[in-house]
Each structure stands twice: as structure tokens, then as C-alpha cells.
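To the wet lab folks,

You asked to see what we're planning to order before we commit. Fair enough. Below is the target structure as C-alpha cells, and below that is the sequence we designed to fit it. If anything looks off to you, flag it before the synthesis order goes out.
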């Protein structure tokens, strides 16, 4: 049984928005499942992070897509992030050295 069939069997309301975006609500209008905007799969609300201004108070992407995106971001920016960290370290170190020089001259 697919999730869609399961939700329909549980008497949740199926709703659709343009571009194939499907979601389900319970009797109170609470979103119980919706389509991930990235992988396009229908997933239950616990598969989304909370987001107060998101649709159904949920983020647009499922947790799997969010973590995949974060990992991709890190991989793509690994060199840059390393450089930023190194530049910070060098600056801090230079500051410490100049304090030391100042102490020695005193
Ligand atoms: Zn997804």
C-alpha cells in the first residue's frame, strides 16, 4: 500500500496545488503529509523540519534532501571554508605576536 493509499484510508483529505504538489490534511486542516519540492515524493510531516513560516509549518524539502544539500554545500565549499579558517587563524596569530613584541619592548 502506498503512502497515498494509506492516507486516504485514514480519511485524510487529499489536496493538490499547481505543478503536481500534493498534500494531505487532517480534519483540523493540519498538514499531515506533503510533496517534497526537491525529490517530489509524498512524505509524512515528520519527514520535514519545522519551519514556522513554511507551508503547513514545515520546510519545503524533506529531511533527506536537506541533509544531502548540506553535504553538497560542504563538499563544494570545503576548500573555501578551509581557507577562511586558516586566514582567521593567521590573523589571530599575528595579533598575538604583535602583543608579544609590544610586551618585549616595554
Ligand atoms: Zn525530498
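Sequence we intend to order:
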Amino acid at each position: 500500500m502506498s503512502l497515498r493509499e494509506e492516507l486516504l484510508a485514514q480519511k485524510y483529505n487529499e489536496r493538490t496545488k499547481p505543478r503536481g504538489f500534493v498534500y494531505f490534511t487532517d480534519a483540523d486542516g493540519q498538514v499531515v503529509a506533503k510533496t517534497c519540492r526537491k525529490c517530489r515524493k509524498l512524505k509524512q510531516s515528520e519527514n520535514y523540519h519545522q519551519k514556522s513560516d513554511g507551508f503547513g509549518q514545515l520546510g519545503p524539502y524533506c529531511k533527506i534532501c536537506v541533509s544531502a544539500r548540506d553535504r553538497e554545500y560542504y563538499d563544494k565549499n570545503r576548500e573555501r571554508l578551509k581557507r577562511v579558517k586558516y586566514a582567521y587563524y593567521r590573523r589571530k596569530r599575528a595579533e598575538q605576536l604583535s602583543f608579544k613584541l609590544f610586551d618585549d619592548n616595554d
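Structural context that might help your review: The beta strands are 13-17, 21-25, 31-35, 42-44, 48-50, 58-62. Residues 94 and 100 are 10 Å apart (CA to CA).

Thanks,
Computational group
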